[in-house]
Design a protein that fits this description.
The protein is built from eleven helices and 20 strands. With 388 residues, it is α/β, with parallel strands linked by helices.
Length: 388
């Protein structure tokens, strides 16, 4: 088996260390420290990890025409943008649509060993969410329904469902969260009008994630208490944040990162099939009409409601660097190590550069004042041509 290598500056909390990373097949076999001029070397970082991807580049896992090839091609497209590990995210729909999407992901993992490494599990966002306007977002109200543990069991028979986003409102919500965790599912709180106390009860029953905190909530909230403060204050919850510059204003993003700390936060793209496409109006896979603006704001046509995102996860890293007080080391942790530690089914070492870990890494040009750009990507030991 051939040995490959890449030289660069490995980013750490204190400094950037010149190293050569070597790998054979999909595994890093050596990291050697170099005595070399730093200015001549790119920045090296683990491949990005995205726990919330509906689609990108004209492909979407929620379309009625989803196939195994959809998942495989989408995985390759994401890798070209630095995302080497991702969770296909299936939104509110009829049970048969959800099951078919999960089944296609399972078949893609069987058909392609790179996809098997890149896609550890599926994130199902809904259908057990709030039916209230605002909190529901653009999820189809005709398919929103009460949490059904047996239905989730049927999803898991179809494929590797790892995360389920629910709204923990109602008398029996905490008990249902407990039942979900017994199935081996990671429970996330999102698209909810639950009270602060209902949120706390769900966390006590085993919920561990907040799905795109600050979004998917009622458009108006009491000053205090409310479900944002409660989730920010609870250290048992890790908060997913969309840093596209639209879902969260930068001052809000700054405060949320300070409140949760870098250790308890992670970035997601929440990207849809519109990501990577030119500005305009589009019909989406889930039936809504959306508008993409020049600054990558994706909204429901004729409405101020956001309809997912069009920015990449690397865009989110750049936005953290330039819109908040946090630097590149923390920004990368939010999109690599942190989500990797929370992704059900993920391989050991994903999100880090270490001997014996996966050969998933990026070379970045960090000299651009607008933020780092991709120079090279390696996924499962194979070179990928970067496109952003």
């Amino acid at each position: 088996m051939s040995t490959h290598q890449m030289a660069g500056r490995m980013v750490t909390a204190r400094d950037d260390i010149p190293v050569t990373v070597e790998w054979q097949g999909p595994v890093i076999t050596a990291i050697t420290y170099l005595d070399a001029p730093r200015a001549e070397l790119p920045l090296l970082a683990p491949g990005l990890v995205d726990l919330q991807v509906n689609g990108y580049g004209g492909l979407d896992v929620n379309t009625e025409s989803i196939t195994v090839d959809t998942v495989i091609e989408l995985s390759h497209i994401l890798a070209s943008r630095g995302v080497t590990t991702w969770l296909p995210t299936v939104v509110t729909a009829a049970e048969e649509r959800i099951v078919e999407a999960v089944r296609c992901v399972a078949r893609a993992r069987t058909a392609d060993p790179v996809v098997a490494n890149a896609v550890p599990s599926v994130h199902v966002e809904g259908p057990f969410i709030s039916d209230h306007d605002g909190a529901r977002g653009v999820h189809d109200p005709s398919f929103v329904r009460s949490l059904d543990i047996e239905e989730v069991s049927r999803w898991r028979e179809a494929g590797p469902v790892g995360i389920v986003t629910i709204s923990p409102h109602g008398e029996h919500a905490a008990e249902q969260v407990r039942s979900l965790t017994r199935l081996g599912v990671t429970v996330a709180i999102g698209h909810t009008h639950a009270s602060s106390d209902e949120v706390s009860a769900a966390v006590g029953a085993g919920a561990t994630l907040s799905t795109h905190l600050g979004n998917g909530i009622p458009t108006t909230l009491p000053r205090h208490p409310n479900i944002i403060w409660r989730q920010l204050a609870d250290d048992r919850l890790h908060a997913g944040l969309i840093a596209d510059g639209h879902h969260l204003p930068f001052d809000t993003l700054e405060v949320m990162l300070r409140a949760k700390s870098i250790e308890r936060a992670f970035l997601v793209s929440d990207s849809t099939e519109i990501g990577g496409r030119p500005p305009g109006r589009y019909q989406t896979a889930v039936g809504s009409v959306v508008e993409l603006s020049e600054d990558l704001r994706l909204s429901e046509a004729g409405s101020d409601l956001l309809a997912g995102a069009a920015a990449s996860l690397l865009d989110g890293v750049r936005n953290v660097m330039h819109g908040t007080s946090f630097g590149i080391h923390d920004a990368l942790l939010l999109a690599t190590r942190n989500p990797a530690r929370l992704a059900p089914g993920v391989r050991p070492g994903v999100g880090e550069l270490r001997v014996g870990g996966p050969a998933d890494l990026m070379a970045l040009d960090d000299s651009d004042p607008h933020g780092p750009s991709l120079l090279g990507v390696v996924q499962s030991g194979r070179w990928v041509t970067p496109t952003c």
